[in-house]
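Support request, please re-run this one:
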Amino acid sequence: MQREQLMDLLTASGVLQEGHFLLSSGLHSDRYLQCAQILQHPERAEKLGREIAEKFSGEKIDLIVGPAMGGIILAYEVARSAGCRGIFTERKDGEMQLRRGFGIEPGERVLLVEDVVTTGKSAREVLQVVEKEGGKVVGISSIVDRSPADLELGVPYRPLLRVEVEVYGPEDCPLCQNGIPLKKPGSRENRE
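Re-run finished. Output below.
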């Protein structure tokens, strides 16, 4: 899928929102990418899963892992396209972990997926969970990469789309300074 086709699909699905948002990283932004809007459509989610699986088609992959919430549906769809299992991690008491009886066999080759990457925090947390269980992370993918250009995750990172979104620290946010109400659309716990 070409960049323009993917942007059209995201726009038609209502993914890109404008306002004043608190991102799960703690940063503020005037734009928010709500990928749940596209993942609610099975045929669109399937297409995205297939696109991500194709980006890693040269790798042997045993398992797809995504963080809850944004990575659950995507992990399932990528796993379906790749012909392997798909599971997810969750936060409990502020710590990313496997629950619900999910496990990773030592030596399993794992692809991490999530909807949007901003700072890479969730991806790094999931990577640590996988490595702690003895899995080998062969790569990371996402629907959208809105991270700084120099983001290093330690493994190949192949997003479907890179979107530049202006972000601000809360102390430097012009939206806060202008009194624009802050929305908290993400799902990460323990945000201030």
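The chain has one domain: 3-177. The radius of gyration is 16 Å.
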